[in-house]
Amino acid sequence: MSENALTHGESTPALASLRGATADSALASARESTSAPEGLPGVVSDWSDDKQAFRVPWGKAMMWIFLLSDTFIFTCFLTSYMNVRISTTVPWPNPSEVFALNIGNAHIPLILIAIMTMVLITSSGTMAMAVNFGYRRHRTKTTALMLMTAGFGATFVGMQAFEWTKLITEGVRPWGNPWGAAQFGSCFFMITGFHGLHVSAGVIYLAVVARRVWTGFYDRKGTYETVEITGLYWHFVDLVWVFIFAFFYLW
Amino acid sequence: MNRAVETAEGHEHAEGQQHPVAIYLWIWALLFVFSTFSYLVDYFHFHGYLRWSLIILFMLVKAGFIVAIFMHMAWERLALKFAILIPPLVLLVLIGLMAIEGDYTFLTRLAAFLR
Fold first, then answer.
1. Residue in chain A nearest B4 by alpha carbon
2. What is the structure's pLDDT at B18?
3. Which CATH code fits A58-250?
């Protein structure tokens, strides 16, 4: 059994932490990985801990909580889109037609959106691999995969910008459009705009962290957790797109 | 330097959430498959309840894969799972209320403006 302050006779994790404060980094990881109850008893034990509820690195817990708040925001947007679409007496524009492209002689519905989805899923894949290689401390591979992820993200934003340009040229405005309910434009621009903003911020975030990986910053720091935390943000961006794709483009 | 190696027992948390890369590649492939299915729902012009239930089903499957595997939630402790996953479920109440309100608004508009 791994040695920690508990084995030296302290009765609670709190006292154990106090006792071992000077050797805190070793104890912190000992505490994080020492066996603790699983399941519902584990929930009770975690939440009733007097020092730390979530037995993960601070940055990871914070990123999850931020993503939770972001989930609320996107849910608000999508819910109001639902509400507006339910209550409009004018038919809603048909997304299959609005977002179709004429390529050569073929009229293909939603093709750009399908490609954008594939691009984002690919970027999630490269990100997951980057995290994996990061924990194995392969700096070159991690940097390369993170930059690929950022590249895919930038590609996605480029395609979204093309979509916006096309629609604006065709007369879509937040207050009206040629095809149906006037609220379509405002929903489209708000939802995809906020999402695209998140993707853009993620591209920058990825680039910053990738550069740090390259210069060995995380080797000196002692952990590649930041790469995983960046990954959480990026997967969230993909996750939001899954919902937008389903509810806005397909429905 | 690698603290997890010295102290980790059982499931590793502090560092090195290492699962074989293969699992990520499999889920990645499945995400492509389900995205294609989602797209085909529209391409093959499904309509009505079949369309909507398939859209939602594929969406939830993909979301589940991303959260559980890519975001590692499947291996996290239950306290974190609950803290992050229960609040969005509660949002379903908001969604339900707004759907009811939307229906009401729609019917009111029909009643007031269609003469």
1. A29
2. 72
3. 1.20.120.80
Neighbouring C-alpha atoms within 13 Å toward the C-beta of A175: 0
Interchain CB distance below 8 Å, B105 and A89: no
8 Å CB contact of A56 and B21: no
Cα–Cα distance between A124 and A206 in angstroms, integer? 12
Nearest to B98 among A34, A79, A236 (CB): A79
Q: Are B69 and B27 part of one and the same domain?
A: yes
For every one of its 251 residues, what pLDDT tens digit does chain A have, with 9 covering 90 and above? 445 544 444 455 555 445 444 444 554 554 555 568 889 999 999 999 999 999 899 999 999 999 999 999 999 999 999 999 999 999 999 998 899 888 888 888 888 999 999 999 999 999 999 999 999 999 999 999 999 999 999 999 999 999 999 999 999 999 999 999 999 999 999 999 999 999 999 999 999 999 999 999 999 999 999 999 999 999 999 999 999 999 999 98
Asked whether A180 and A90 are in contact (CB, 8 A), the reply is yes
- pLDDT value at B62 more than 80: yes
Q: Residue B9: list chain A partners with CB under 8 A.
A: 1-2, 33-35
Give the single-character DSSP code of B114: -
Give the nearest chain A residue to B47 (CA atoms). Answer: A251
Q: Does A52 touch chain B (CB under 8 A)?
A: no
Integer Cα distance of A122 and B34 in angstroms: 13
Q: What domain range includes position B18?
A: 1-76
Tens of pLDDT, residue by residue over A105-155, are 888 888 899 999 999 999 999 999 999 999 999 999 999 999 999 999 999
C-alpha distance from residue B43 to each of A159, A202, B46, B65 (Å): 21, 31, 8, 24
* Three-state helix/strand/coil letters over A41-80: HHHHHHHCCCCCCCCCCHHHHHHHHHHHHHHHHHHHHHHH
B109 and B68 in a common domain: no
Tell me the chain A residues in contact with residue B105 when contact means C-beta distances shorter than 8 Å.
83, 86-87
Q: How many domains does chain B have?
A: 2
Partners of residue B98 in chain A, C-beta under 8 Å: 79-80, 82-83
